[in-house]
Design a protein that fits this description.
Chain A is mainly β and 221 residues long. Chain A contains 2 helices and 10 strands, in the order H-H-E-E-E-E-E-E-E-E-E-E. The termini of chain A are far apart. An 8-stranded antiparallel beta barrel of chain B has the order 1-2-3-4-5-6-7-9. The mean pLDDT of chain B is 87. Chain B has 195 residues and is mostly beta strands. The chains are: A mainly beta (221), B mainly beta (195).
């Protein structure tokens, strides 16, 4: 014969039910790892195409370059880049700019890096610029100079996959101190000439538009 | 009973299943490479260049791959100018359109650099006759290119490839007026891949 368990009275059943209902209050779970920690240390590598427009002499320059990005938090990224830009000055001279610099990118809106998402950012930074302007003549007279510049602007990443993104940015770059520039003019005989000189451009600058392809390669920490 | 039990144990050895041929062939961590002769039509000058074209590609997954391309200049039938060198190296990525078979269509974007040098070019405003001056200097010319193409993996290690590429750039020279490098290049041939 089997014996069936029977509580002595209904009060015992009520007590048991109360203990079961209150038991979640005694449960603990560890805190979720902060999103900041997960994003920090991510390293990306990429290539870029650059357009330099609204230059002082009215010409547009086209360039190529590369960059790597190192993230310091879910809303803070740094980009370290190098560009090589060539500009035709009315067929009379050619300008070559080599930029090497960095920028901080802050994500004020969406900062979740995921497939199909746009991640807009505000960027600001600094770069060094080695400029070489050469006349298109057989003697090839040229002027070269190192200068420094600051830049800031806006951009966005678009993640095609979780590990790969296409980024577009527009940065306004202002050169500090003196720089060299080329000015085409017509001489007294009506021939096209170009004057290459060191000049103080003041607050004038130019717009740098970059389209880059970036891939996530490592988590450094 | 023992015979039935033994038969059941050996039964799986007689079973076969075919590989799912409807699955997409490309996948992550796959390498692809190719080498072919590639003609290019220069739009401004309306002439043909011939290159040796090589590609190295690594698939991150079945939608994105990283690729590098090199073009080695062989010859040209340009009427008004003569290239001494026009080689280029490009690096970028491809986006692969999802399929359920061995057909792999893609689009790609690649910035790059052209190594360009003229033997003689178009007279510029400051040079009256470009044939009177020595060989032009070697220039590094920024390029950008967009590609449309497909691969067909008909074998485990070989595939058929076909692509059309548009390249844009401008050669700035000391012996010539600036020369547009806008060009459409075609590549077709056999490539090989490692899973």
């Amino acid at each position: 014969m089997y014996q069936v368990f029977k509580p002595k009275n209904s009060q015992a059943m009520k007590n048991l039910l109360l203990v079961i209902l209150l038991s979640p209050l005694f449960l603990h779970a560890q805190e979720a790892k902060e999103n900041n920690d997960k994003e920090s240390g991510k390293l990306q590598l990429g290539v870029r195409s650059t357009l330099s427009s609204f230059n002082h002499d009215g010409t547009n320059g086209y360039g190529v370059g590369g960059q790597f990005r190192l993230k310091f938090g879910s809303r803070l990224n740094t980009e370290w880049f190098a560009d090589y830009i060539t500009t035709d000055i009315s067929g009379l001279a050619r300008r070559i700019d080599n930029h090497i610099g960095w920028a901080v990118q802050f994500y004020p809106l969406n900062n979740e890096i995921a497939k199909g998402k746009f991640t807009p950012f505000i960027a600001a930074g600094h770069c060094f610029d080695y400029t070489n302007i050469t006349k298109n003549t057989s003697d090839g007279l040229s002027l070269r100079r190192w200068s420094s510049a600051v830049h800031s602007g806006l951009g966005t990443h678009y993640n095609i996959t979780d590990k790969f993104d296409v980024s577009l940015s527009a940065l306004y770059m202002m050169h500090l101190g003196k720089n060299i520039d080329a000015q085409p003019f017509e001489d007294a005989q009506g021939n096209e000439q170009v004057l290459i000189q060191v000049s103080d451009l003041g607050l004038e600058g130019h717009l740098l538009i970059s389209l880059s392809l970036n891939v996530y390669i490592a988590d450094l920490w | 009973m023992k015979k039935i039990f033994f038969s059941l144990l050996l039964f799986p050895l007689t079973m076969n299943a075919q590989k799912d041929s409807s699955a997409q062939f490309i996948h992550g961590h796959m390498f692809r490479s190719q080498a072919t002769i590639s003609p290019g039509y220069v739009m401004e000058g309306k002439y043909l260049n011939i290159y040796l074209h090589g590609t190295l590609e690594y698939y991150l997954d079945n939608s994105i791959s990283l690729r590098g391309d090199g073009f080695y200049f062989l010859k040209s039938n340009s009427p008004g100018l003569k290239w001494k060198q026009y080689h280029s190296i490009l690096a970028g990525a491809s986006y692969h359109i999802k399929t359920k078979n061995r057909f792999d269509p893609y689009i790609a974007l690649q910035p790059g650099v052209g190594i360009t040098q003229l033997e003689y070019g178009y007279p510029s405003a400051t040079i009256s006759s470009s044939t009177d001056v020595p060989l032009g200097k070697v220039s590094a010319t920024p390029l950008i290119s967009g590609v449309v193409g497909f691969n067909y993996y008909f074998q485990k290690v070989f595939h058929l490839l076909a692509e059309a590429r548009y390249v844009n750039g401008k050669h700035l020279s000391d012996i010539s007026y600036p020369i547009s490098l806008s060009e459409v290049k075609f590549s077709f041939g056999l490539g090989w891949n490692i899973k």
